Amino acid sequence: MNKPQAWYKQFWPWFLIILPLCAVFASVNLMFLAVENKDSLVSEDYYKDGKAINMDLRKIKHAKQFGLQFELHLAKDEITLTQHGGEPYAAALNVEFYHPTLQEKDFGQVATADGNMVYHIKLNTPIQGSWEVRLEGYDRSWRIQKRLELKDNQQYWLN
Questions:
Q1: d(CA 127, CA 97)
Q2: pLDDT per residue over 94-128, tens digit each?
Q3: How far is CA 91 from its chain centroid?
Q4: Is 48 in contact with 42 (CB distance < 8 Å)?
C-alpha cells in the first residue's frame, strides 16, 4: 500500500498558494508606484484656481485689445520672439513653457529685446513636442497663451 505524500510535496497546494501571493505582490508594487509617482497636475484649492482663471481671462482680453501678436521661431538651442502686431513693446517679456504632463520639464525666463526688438531665449536642452506657451508683459498686465506642437526650425504665431 502506498503511503500518501506530504501536502508540501504535492503540486496543487503550491499552485493554489502562489496565485494569491502573485496578487499581493502586484498590489504592493502598484501601491509603491502610485505613491512614488504622484500626479502633479491635481489642484488642492479649486476655488482659488477658479478666481485665477478669471484673472487670466482679463489678461488675455487685454492683450487682444492691444492687438499684440508675436512670431516664435524655434531653432535647435534658441527661441526668438518677434512682435508683429500692436504697439511696439520695448519692455521685457515673461516667457513660460509648460509641458502638458511632466511638471519638472516646465521652465520660464525673462527675455529682453535686442536692438531690432527681437527677444532671444537660450535653451539648455532642445525642446520638441506639445507645450503650452505663455507670453506676459513684464508688469503682468496682459497675456498671450497658446498650445503648440514644437519642432526645430519652425515658426509659430502667438496672438
A1: 10
A2: 999 999 888 888 999 999 888 888 999 999 888 99
A3: 26
A4: no
Measured between alpha carbons, how far is 111 from 57 in angstroms, rounded to an integer? 23
Nearest partner of 141 among 75, 61, 39, judged by Cα: 61
Identity (one letter) of the amino acid at 143?
R
- What pTM value is reported for the model? 0.69
Q: Which three cell numbers stand for residue 64?
A: 487682444
Closest listed residue to residue 159, CA positions, set 52, 84, 95, 96:
84
How many other C-beta atoms can be found within 10 angstroms of the C-beta atom of residue 90?
10
Q: Is residue 69 within 8 Å of residue 87, measured between CB atoms?
A: no
Helices marked H in the chain: 11-36, 46-66
